[in-house]
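Example record used in the benchmark description.
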Amino acid sequence: MRSKLFASGFRPTFLITGMAAALLVPLWVSTWGFGWSLPMAWPPTVWHAHEMVFGFVVAAIAGFLLTAVPSWTGQRGFAGAPLMLLVALWLAARLLIATSAFWPATVVAGVDVAFLVALAILVAPPLLRSQNRNTPLLLVILCLAGCNAASHWALLQRDAGAAQHAVLLGIDITLLLVTVIGGRIVPAFTASGLRSSGVSVQMRTWRWTTPAVVAAMIAVALVDLFWVNSPLAGGVAGVAAILHTVRILQWRSLATWRQPIVWVLHLGYAWLPVGLALKCLALLDGAAISAFWLHALTIGVLATMILAVMTRAALGHTGRALVVDPAVALSYLLLLCAGLVRVFGLGVLGLPYLFVIVISACFWTAAFGVFLAVYAPILWTARADGKPG
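Model output (structure tokens):
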């Protein structure tokens, strides 16, 4: 059967997202905990942070945009050679970074940053032609490209701290994206999911909530830009945590427990106020329980929302029913365990740190291994309804 991998934007990008998740974390554990090394010029901790954001997360963002933009604009989807070029850039960047000891730093940086630039060039024409309300997302892509470029520049200057700062800003931008897009899809998918199961529900959100949480997340990013890890950053994170809590309490989360494809969205979003509250506690008090707040935001929010959106979108855009395989529901729980162990294993459970890292990585890898096992055939083969795409 002829492959349909490059017949639609989500197919190759979701596949490389799953591959990145399943490979990058075990590689990191091998280098950090067991002395295995890659031929790269980067400090291992910087490589891990950078690749999880500008490798894993950014690939997922590309998949989402390449799928959503045709729906938003009513214009032709992305397929064929442009997708092949985009995936080739992503793969080349991962290989160049992993073997950066052999290459000029400017070449590594150029190829890596080119991925986001190419993505912006690809999605800009339909957004601009249609004057779509989502056109400002182009600015988000370019800001991420700027953060990526800044991290490479910092490494060129041998400033690992500045490189990590640039990655943190990239995380802030992606959390803003979750705030905006998640604020649309979580209540919408909740309402449609509950209606399909015969539950009559009205999703009412206070009008001020959305602008308030978006403004709060912009403030989080700006404070992290100029006053990173300061008490002010902690205070702003605390305010944002309260606003996100108010927002999610309006979304009928408990009513979704029978539908994994819906409750996983609530689970991912729920990590956002948790992670921001832990950040507030860490920067204002330094409590041990809050030491790993960043992983609550990365594993908890970003990875869970990525897994949730990929598993749903891949079904819907291949003509399949929006009901996940039980194994996929298990993968949601495995990822939840990965986050809980990584965030609370040391400070709350008192587990040895190496044990925390290894166990969390095992849960994580198993979660995305299940995703690949179930969804690689879906992403590779034709739509179930026989339609193109």
